[in-house]
Hints:
2 copies of one chain form a homodimer. By secondary structure, chain A is an alpha/beta fold. Chain A has helices at residues 11-21, 28-41, 80-91, 116-120, 136-151, 163-177, 224-232, 247-260, 301-317; strands at 53-58, 62-64, 71-75, 95-101, 121-123, 129-131, 155-160, 184-188, 195-196, 214-220, 237-244, 265-270, 277-281, 286-290. In chain A, the strands form 4 sheets. Chain A has an 8-stranded mixed beta sheet with strand order 7-4-1-8-11-12-13-14, with helices on both faces. A two-stranded antiparallel ribbon of chain A has the order 2-3. In chain A, a hairpin with a 6-residue loop joins β12 and β13 (277-281). Chain A is globular. Mean pLDDT of chain A is 89; it is low at 1-5. β3 (71-75) of chain A pairs antiparallel with β3 of chain B. Chains A, B: Keywords: Coenzyme A biosynthesis.
Amino acid sequence: MNSTDHAPETPTLKIKAFFESAPPLKDAAEIQTKLKEFVDRNSSSGNGKANRVVCVTSGGTTVPLEKRCVRYIDNFSSGHRGSASTEYFLKAGYSVIFLYRRGTCQPFCRSLPDDPLLECFTSTDDSSVQVDPSHAEMVKRAITENRSAVNGGFLLKLPFTTIFEYLQILRMIAVSLRSLGPSAMFYLAAAVSDFYVPWESMTMHKIQSASGPLDMRLAQVPKMLYVLRNEWAPVAFCISFKLETDTDILLGKADMALKKYKMHMVVANELQTRKEEVIVVTEQEKITVRRDTTQPGADVEDPLIKLVVDRHSAYIDA
Amino acid sequence: MNSTDHAPETPTLKIKAFFESAPPLKDAAEIQTKLKEFVDRNSSSGNGKANRVVCVTSGGTTVPLEKRCVRYIDNFSSGHRGSASTEYFLKAGYSVIFLYRRGTCQPFCRSLPDDPLLECFTSTDDSSVQVDPSHAEMVKRAITENRSAVNGGFLLKLPFTTIFEYLQILRMIAVSLRSLGPSAMFYLAAAVSDFYVPWESMTMHKIQSASGPLDMRLAQVPKMLYVLRNEWAPVAFCISFKLETDTDILLGKADMALKKYKMHMVVANELQTRKEEVIVVTEQEKITVRRDTTQPGADVEDPLIKLVVDRHSAYIDA
């Protein structure tokens, strides 16, 4: 597998080339319809102002290594950050487009076991199904709050698997949210692949393992943050995430992302401590946000979303 | 990343080197206890003969690319084959050790939507949780049959994620099942990685994406089938799977696996048609097994497991 040797130079051209080589999105028309309905419904509230809408991305994207895909490179991400943040955004009165990796953590379901159906329910003799008393509250909350957000039109869930699907849907969302101006926000918590095999240079069939080691050359995914900020959604409030395992380089990289991609905020987090604290980097300051350890079960996303909402308000008023 | 340059020569030495370099299994003691209980319970039935026990492996293994894992290579596998086969083995009176990839399809849950909790349930005003009538039968069946198999001691579920976990647990199972002699079976439907990054040559931190394309060299995973058949479980009945996307090479590769690893059966399947038909390759014959298309919802695993059980009986009696 070879990367394209003569890659185009600017981010815009690179992303154009990426999209042209990507396999077409299967359910594009259906996604478009859902997006239109959602944005229309949220375009004006009683006071004539646009509702605030945030697109939360969550979970990792995959990179297929074969066209008829058997193997792929994946990015570890449970979707915990994105699903928790979605709950706090809804609580703060935002409408949320939750762009999530299939199979990852869903809003309101974070405390449930891996397989809630088999682990939380029993069936009784009179052919009905019953929640185990120990899980009853959690299960009821998950079902009720999810239904209420989805049916009320405050939560639109759109799934992805590959990097190709993710970037194509994100572009559709960005274009749909333009009409909301600064009331729209992008909260990009997904773990997006940075290397991929360009579709046109990808092998059709399963890679054979008969003969010795496998050498792979992966191309860099074009820096989508730049194009999102400059072209797709130039007026929206944009927050990106930087995850590293090496604390020494984390803040430097977060700073670089802020400047290079003109993000309004970068949330820096370290793999081992990411559920305890994050550092919010803006042009003016670096703010450490910690979860309230005096409260059992308190999330770092609670103070984080309060801070984000606060800065978004200032941005809208400016 | 470099593969080990001077790899040991024989499969046994290769797998020994693989295990020595693998990160230790975290819950080894707990798995050992569960296995012991399960095998003891199934070691003799009323007639003094050992119960039949099959280890069904299901879903794909991952290969971490970093020690503090952010990225990994994954093998696409829904776990549908393994979970369906488990149901038919239980129906045929076998006890099943279901060695499955976390998050993949579970026995009795194949027909449920992706997220059964949020998609099949509603909550009512009197603070109870209710199944939607359209899903009631399926949900009840999933919960009842799973509970009955697990609580009855016929089904032991053990999860894995990485290739390191998978091979270590498989070895533990093989050693535990030795006492059952020919009554034990291995039905290896999992999609096992064939390339990996040896743990000792793996980078500690997240691979940086700053500078150009990424070159990777992956080493071959030692051929575990050979060691399973020859050392871990020399008397058990062994069935492996061969999945290809290219029909032209499929049967040749299945034949090779049969001879090279001395499998009793190899189930050959093609990615596009794998839910419709498979070809069972034995030393004597090639049998095409198709699902019964006159029955709505019939699975190819139904006739497949009947054939497997039949051949296993002949093997025990021989």
